[in-house]
């Protein structure tokens, strides 16, 4: 699946197993194509009926790999074909945790639009994607659209928030003119995480 689309289509037409994982790690052809960001190969495998939510070693899915690699086009194909955004690896990370870890606002927005649980906590540390991003940001602001269903249970009254904004102190002046309610502060004193 690391090669070109025409070879993959020929192999599928010849009866190759779409969902057979490698013996050593369970990686399927879709998993490998997603890992390399090969959107046309991903599309060909999805059209041929590849299992979208198959998980390889470490319980990584193709969507985890797309999010971790920043492959928006691959993630879009997977999500449009109903891959689950609420899939978790062995550490309890969702694809949104990876987008937040990479401070990838576009990927985070795509995953949030698809209905990912923005409040999912990792089992061991209890970290949400918001924690990941707040801990990673160093002098940049990232905004991702959040729908009404994702309002935190402890939100400060009023209508559901329209956006999460993760802002470092240097970027604060860019959003300070917008009415905001402080939601939580990150562990580093220079950072603030707000809803508006």
Would you give an account of this structure?
By secondary structure, the chain is an alpha+beta fold. Helices cover 36% and strands 10% of the residues. The protein has nine helices and four strands, in the order ααααααααββαββ. The protein has helices at 5-13, 29-36, 39-47, 62-69, 72-80, 95-101, 105-113, 129-136, 172-175; strands at 141-145, 163-168, 181-184, 191-195. A four-stranded antiparallel beta sheet has the order 1-2-4-3. The termini are far apart.
Please state the average pLDDT score. Answer: 74
Largest sheet: 4 strands, antiparallel
The CA-CA distance between the termini, in Å, is 43 Å
Secondary structure: helix percent: 25-40%
Given the helix and strand composition, which structural class is it? alpha+beta
Give the helices and strands as they follow along the chain.
HHHHHHHHEEHEE
Q: Identify the overall geometry.
A: elongated
What is the topology, as strand order, of the major beta sheet?
Answer: 1-2-4-3
Our count of helices gives 9
User: What ranges have pLDDT less than 50 throughout 5 or more consecutive residues?
Assistant: 138-196
Q: Strand share of the residues?
A: 5-15%
The oligomeric state of the chains shown is single chain
Radius of gyration, in angstroms, nearest whole number:
19 Å
What is the strand tally? 4
């Amino acid at each position: 699946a690391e090669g070109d689309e025409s070879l993959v289509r020929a192999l599928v037409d010849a009866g190759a197993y779409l969902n057979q994982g490698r013996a050593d790690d369970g990686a399927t052809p879709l998993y490998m194509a997603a890992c390399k960001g090969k959107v046309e190969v991903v599309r060909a495998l999805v059209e041929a009926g590849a299992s979208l939510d198959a998980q390889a070693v470490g319980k990584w899915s193709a969507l985890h790999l797309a999010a971790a690699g920043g492959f928006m086009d691959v993630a879009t194909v997977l999500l449009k074909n109903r891959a689950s955004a609420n899939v978790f690896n062995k550490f309890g990370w969702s694809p949104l945790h990876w987008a937040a870890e990479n401070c990838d606002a576009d990927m985070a927005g795509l995953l949030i639009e698809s209905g990912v649980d923005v409040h999912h906590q990792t089992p061991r540390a209890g970290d949400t994607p918001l924690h990941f991003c707040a801990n990673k940001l160093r002098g940049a602001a990232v905004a991702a659209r959040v729908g009404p269903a994702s309002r935190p249970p402890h939100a400060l009254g009023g209508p559901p928030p329209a956006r999460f904004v993760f802002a470092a102190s240097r970027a604060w002046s860019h959003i300070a003119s917008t009415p905001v309610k402080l939601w939580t502060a990150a562990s580093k004193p220079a950072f603030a995480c707000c809803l508006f």
